[in-house]
Amino acid sequence: MASENGQSGGGSWKKNVDDIKKVFEFKEVLGTGAFSEVVMAREKTTGKMVAVKCIPKKALKGKETSIENEIAVLRKIKHENIVALEDIYESPNHLYLIMQLVSGGELFDRIVEKGFYTEMDASRLIKQVLNAVNYLHDMGIVHRDLKPENLLYYNPHDEAKIMISDFGLSKMEGTGDVMATACGTPGYVAPEVLAQKPYSKAVDCWSIGVIAYILLCGYPPFYDENDSKLFEQILKADYEFDAPYWDDISDSAKQFISSLMEKDPEKRFTCDQALAHPWIAGDTALCKNIHESVSRQMRKNFAKSKWRQAFNATAVIRHMRRLQLGSSLGGSFGSSMSVDQPGQNSMPAKSMSVDCASLSRKDGPLQPLSTLPPLPSSPAACSAPVSIGVEPHVEPEAVLEVPRPRPSTVTTIHTGTK
């Protein structure tokens, strides 16, 4: 049925198959991207549920290097907080990446759904991200596109771990001009990347700082409708801890974020230094409930993608209900029950990841997350995302812009609205 590809030059990790549907039973489409489609599937021999990234070979012409890079990176990674590449199949017309399925949804949506949320919760989340990124850095891998929509919960349970997904822009250090290529999502990208200077692992630490900032106030640190002004702010590391949004946040948290969002990469915290900081390793993270303020801002700044992810969320929920997994996620899913999130966007304008020598100045929206609710009767009611770094399989819709009631000095880029 499937045989190992014994080609020289690194092709031995592919399994040849004449028809992938002899190996997997395809279910719903989870998302589509520029040159791939992600489908929920069941492995016929084991019953295990996976996410299959289907890439037509004809669509790979001119993009072979990009997909080979993603595969090369993913094949090296084995970490509890990183979505795994489990297998690779090749047919005459397609390449299939068999990915771990993650079902818990996206980071911000889970926070919004909570009734209680503290600095300590944020600290625990960031610690998991730091551990995973530190692992990557130890392997010489730089993610280069860390952002909230690439952080997914393993399953819908309250204590589920965080998983990092989407390695399409990741690179190994020491591979020539790679580390001087402008890439990433501008709202989370380090100043040296925007300046198109050679850079290092420190770019990931900056991005973690931006994510930590948002986790504690609900809005991003950089914003301007004018791209050139936005880039200026990032290049200068021009951000503030605005009142009243930061009044109840500890000085330790602010110092931690400032150490990661340090303009000079030589002075910026490494993952090891961040993991040793009292806000992560000690007891300085406060236990005061900040849910009301943070969730209000997150709804205003990051909720629009729910409309665009609704179709995919419904498909996953429907399927899990059919499999009677609503209350027991262990079962046939075993240890690989998880659904990578549909990564890149359907939101207008300011949110798509880029990887090019001259920045296109767009970045990608946040996709929603959720637990396993009853099957929603309308798209607006659901928010469980599923993806593998691909665009959601839905038609764009008009969404109301909600003004953000905060000082004009605050800047962000994620939603394209203030």
From TrEMBL:
Binding site for ATP: K58
Main location: cytoplasm
PROSITE patterns found in the cross-reference section: PROTEIN_KINASE_ATP (PS00107), PROTEIN_KINASE_DOM (PS50011), PROTEIN_KINASE_ST (PS00108)
Membrane-spanning parts: none
GO biological process: nervous system development
Record domain Protein kinase: where: 24-280
One MF term in the entry's GO annotations: calmodulin binding
Kinase found in the keyword field: yes
Span list, region Disordered: 331-351, 397-418
Keyword Zinc attached: no
GO annotation, cellular component aspect: cytoplasm; nucleus
Biased composition (Polar residues): 339-348, 408-418
Subcellular location: Cytoplasm; Nucleus
One Pfam family per UniProt: Pkinase
Coiled coil: none
Keywords tagged on the record: Allosteric enzyme, ATP-binding, Calmodulin-binding, Cytoplasm, Isopeptide bond, Kinase, Neurogenesis, Nucleotide-binding, Nucleus, Phosphoprotein, Serine/threonine-protein kinase, Transferase, Ubl conjugation
Family, similarity comment: Belongs to the protein kinase superfamily.
UniProt-recorded name of the protein: Protein kinase domain-containing protein
UniProt organism field: Oncorhynchus tshawytscha
Taxonomy of the source species: Eukaryota, Metazoa, Chordata, Craniata, Vertebrata
Gene: LOC112219038
